[in-house]
Amino acid sequence: ACGEQALGESFFLKNTGHFWLIHETRPYMEVLCELADAYLRNNQFARAIECYEKGLVLNPNDNQGLRHILIGVYIRTHELEKADALLNTYEEDLSAFMRFSKLLLRYIQEGDSPAARALKADAKAYNKHVPTYLSGKHKIPVNLPEYFGIGDKHEAIIYAHIHRDVWRNTMGAIGWLNK
């Protein structure tokens, strides 16, 4: 609220869509992300979604990776149409966050369908580490990596840390993933 008041309504109207590119908005964007994360940690999903969505409206290029968290919250709260829409909006994002979330969404929608199996093969070929971290075969370290590379173990650790609960709460999903 303080950031919104300091920047002003006209500033928001004028600059929505490219907030991250404006240096003076970064503290606001970082606090908005921290607020969303706090709501998520406290199972206040609707408020978390509101903050993540607001961040994406202000900065659709999503330099903060809000979509990587929001996709799991949509799935967790059974907002599957919003999850599909988010995946379509960021279809060029081929990270583990989007590949494995798309896979989970398809599994929820169709079960062990040919399309789900194709997505599973693609996701596992992209990052072979994710299934072992989701299943608990490899433990997620207490101290998360500060960075990750495309398809590497660190990406798998961060993905599993963020999304393991939604996978665990989807009956049979982890066992199916590891087949």
What does this structure look like?
The protein has helices spanning 2-7, 9-15, 26-41, 45-58, 66-76, 80-89, 96-110, 114-126, 130-135, 153-168, 173-177. Helix 4 packs antiparallel against helix 5, helix 5 runs antiparallel to helix 6 (80-89) and helix 7 packs antiparallel against helix 8. The model has no long low-confidence stretch (mean pLDDT 96). 66% of the residues lie in helices and 0% in strands. By secondary structure, it is mostly helical. It starts with a helix and ends with a helix.
Concise description?
By secondary structure, the chain is an all-alpha fold. It is about 65% helix and about 0% strand. It is elongated, with a radius of gyration of 17 Å.
Task: Give the ordered list of helices and strands.
Answer: HHHHHHHHHHH
Distance between the termini: 48 Å
Radius of gyration from the alpha-carbon trace, in angstroms: 17 Å
Count every helix, treating DSSP H or I runs of 4 or more residues as helices.
Answer: 11
Q: Summarize the biggest pleated sheet.
A: none
The general outline is elongated
Average pLDDT number: 96
Q: What is the strand content?
A: under 5%
How many strands? Answer: 0
Poorly predicted parts: none
Helical content (DSSP H or I, runs of 4+): 55-70%
